[in-house]
Amino acid sequence: MASSISCSFKPTLRQHSSQASKSRGQPASRAQAAKAKQLSSVHTSFSSAQSKQQLTASRLNSAKVTGRQQIVCKASTNIVAAASAAEPPAEKPWQGAKLKELGYAVAIGTAIWFIPPPAGVAIKAWKLLAIFVATIVGIILQPLPLGAVAMVGLGVSMVTGILTFPAAFSAFATEIPWLIAIAFFLAKGFIKTGLGNRIAYMVVSLFGSTSLGLTYSLVLSELFLAPAIPSLAARAGGIFLPLCKALCTACGSDPKDGTEKKLGSYLMFVMFQASCISSSMFITAMAANPLSVTLAQAAIGHTISWGQWAQAAFVPGIVCLLCMPLILYFIAGPELKDSPEAPAKAKEELEKLGPMTTDEKIMGATLLTTVGLWIAGPSFGIGSVAAALVGLTVLLVTGVVTWKECLAEGGAWDTLTWFAALIAMAAYLNKYGLISWFSAEVVKVVGGLGLAWQPALVVICLIYFYSHYMFASGAAHIGAMYTAFLSVAVACGCPPVVSAILLACFSNLMGCTTHYGIGSAPPFYGTGYVPLAQWWTLGGILSVFYITVWFGVGAVWWKMIGLY
Q1: Closest to 356 in 3D by CA, of 390, 391, 400
Q2: Across-strand partners of 162?
Q3: What angle separates helix 384-398 from helix 358-376, to the nearest 10 degrees?
């Protein structure tokens, strides 16, 4: 209808237009003008109505199309949903233990469990040995995280009635595991504030042109601080661990992104080994060394002085400290060996850091206070853990480190768990009489061989050294076996003072073999830079080197200074 109206209306307009043009030049009448205006208005109204009707029709057509599309989309969605429902759901991947590795640990523990114990060994001691060995195998193969393996071991020991709850968790009330955990928290502040990076850049700017130069600067620093800080765990975890982590980060080495071999794995393991060597060189470099002195005085009637110990251990110790980084450099060296541009870049980074921030100053003052308490605290009755807690308290109160950040330090809690569990099991192996039985058997065997004192001393020291795989504490090993082995050495004709000092030094060096055998091992291992298999392999290689140096270079040196 709109189109018919429009068609009939257009001729009328043309007629009036022609009439108007014919009469051009003559005055138009008012009636004709009004009529033309009226007709133009009507035409405009009809045109507007036509446009609106066309727009409405267009919208209706569009709505119909959209409705059809929605129907099609809904149908397609239903079809896809039906197909998805018909498909079986994807199977969730196994997130539990590595069953093969777990089976090995269980099989070895079960085999020992059902072997009849030797004469003189209590049933409880033998069964606890089976659980302990299975736990160690589990920690090596890692079917579960280390802390989980340790908790399973404690659980088995309690379910079988071998250990009570107080016995199984007794080591959680001892100092060393907590000192290691708190050292992780202090290291968090050291890194978070940027103080670690600042010190790391300073060290790199001075010694960082080569990885070896950087490493030796830290090794000598460890040697310098060793006689002043008796707590090995505090020295390693509270001072050198955060510094090493900062250095590794500054050099782009982080196990989280697969770059641990660039520098970190080498540096971390060198510093761990350096802590074992330096702790053997001074009475005051390891908390259990005075125990060796006390037991030696009771066994041979001679008191080893600080100076005598340091003099006897200095030459073989220095040889080990100088050679060990080189040995590791050639068999497990870092990917980053030479970096002549590193000192200049480190200086640039120092300039970018600008002046020390308030948090850095608080962290630096806290660290100095904590180290001061580790050195002088024992004179005032302040232990290592108490000193570390003073430092942690300052960081928490000032907000430099938050408790949420401490809770998020998974490595600290994991290390605390597995290390305390191993200490507890090893301690009860001693309490149940297994270690004393083992010592007595060694004395019988070695004493009955009729060896000259030189080979007899070698055999005694080798057994003493490598039996440390059964211990998670140097103090426990010394307390259980030092007196017995020193006594048999003297009975075989070995020089008493040499035997006493050698066994005392080995009480530190033997910690180099495992990731749990000495207080400095868990902090460095807990960083994740060195795989467990590599840790044990390199530790075994270096143990042979240390023993060779102490029996070779050491024997010559002791002869020169008149110890025998």
Answers
A1: 400
A2: none
A3: 170
Q: Which amino acid belongs to residue 443?
A: V
- Residue 296 or 439, more confident: 296
Q: Which tokens sit at 42?
A: 């009507």
Of 230, 167, 306, residue with least CA distance to 474: 230
Token pair of 471 as six digits: 């211990």
Q: Tell me how many degrees the CA angle 169-170-171 measures, rounded to the nearest 5.
A: 95
Amino acid present at 235: R
Torsion region of 493: left, alpha or beta (phi above 0 gives left; psi -120 to 50 gives alpha): left
| Token couple for 408 | 């998020």
At a CB cut-off of 8 Å and minimum separation 6, what does 300 contact? 486, 490, 496, 497, 499, 500
Give, to the nearest 10 degrees, the angle between helix 175-192 and helix 241-250.
Answer: 40
Please identify which residue in the block is written with the tokens 């090493």: 244
- Angstrom distance (rounded) from CA 49 to CA 419: 90
In the numeric block, the tokens 């709109």 are attached to 2
Question: SS in 3 state form for 59-75?
Answer: HHHHHHHHHHHHHHHHH
CA distance 231 to 244: 18
From 481, 469, 431, select the one nearest 164 (Cα to Cα).
431
Residue linked to tokens 């970096």? 339
pLDDT tens digits, 500-525: 999 999 999 999 999 888 888 888 99
* pTM attached to this predicted model: 0.64
Assign 174 to helix, strand or coil: coil
The whole-angstrom separation of Cα 182 and Cα 381 is 19
202 Cβ contact list (under 8 Å, min separation 6): 346, 350
For position 70, what pLDDT does the model report?
A: 53
DSSP-derived secondary structure for 332-371: H--S--B-TTHHHHHHHHHHHH-SPPHHHHHHHHHHHHHH
Q: Rounded to whole angstroms, how far apart are CA atoms 435 and 125?
A: 9
CA angle 213–230–265, rounded 5-degree value? 35
Residue with tokens 């609106």: 52
Q: Distance between CA 425 and CA 428 in Å, rounded?
A: 5
* 293 contacts 303 by C-beta, under 8 angstroms: yes
Is residue 113 within 8 A of residue 91, CB to CB? The reply is no
Tally of CB atoms within 10 A around 388:
27
| Residue 323: both structure tokens together | 């050679």
Provide the token pair at 112. 């020992």
Q: pLDDT digit string (tens) for 319-361?
A: 999 999 999 999 999 998 887 767 877 788 788 889 999 999 9
